[in-house]
Amino acid sequence: MSKIEDLLATEGAAAKNYPMPDKLPAHVRVSRPNLGRPTVLSVRLSAQEHEQLQRAADAANLPASTLMRIWALDRLHAEHDGTDASVTERLARLEREVFSRTA
């Protein structure tokens, strides 16, 4: 493994094993980021499409609605910016660049 992969593995393990306190400290503020998004959009999917979406969401460790929002907003931003690069493509490009420099 590279140094970055080792660091990510170490930090990931530490986050998984972090004991959550029963009561949050006074200086910690809990936020609800989606309160700024009051509009709900319903989307009809076939059972097969829903299963595919759920598998993709499970693989990303996200709720299906969050994954759909990410994908929709990614597409809107790409069209607005005039780029065809999706989040996945940009992340893959970033990973290639980072890992090529650490190898």
Describe this structure in words.
The chain has 4 helices and no strands. It has one domain (3-102). It is extended, with a radius of gyration of 18 Å. With 103 residues, the protein is mainly alpha-helical. 59% of the residues lie in helices and 0% in strands. The chain starts with a helix and ends with a helix.
Short description:
By secondary structure, this protein is mainly α. It has helices at 3-16, 47-59, 64-81, 87-102.
Secondary structure: elements and pairs:
Layout: H1 3-16, H2 47-59, H3 64-81, H4 87-102
Helix pairs in contact: 2-3
Q: Approximately how much helix is present in the residues?
A: 55-70%
- How many distinct helices? 4
| Main sheet characteristics | none
Number of strands: 0
Number of domains: 1
Class derived from helix and strand content: mainly alpha
Strand content: under 5%
**Uncertain residue segments:** none
What is the rounded Rg? 18 Å
H/E element string? Answer: HHHH
Summed over residues and divided by their number, the pLDDT gives a mean of 82
Question: What is the first-to-last residue Cα distance?
Answer: 9 Å
Q: What's the shape? A: extended
List keywords for this structure.
103 residues; mainly alpha; 4 helices; 0% strand
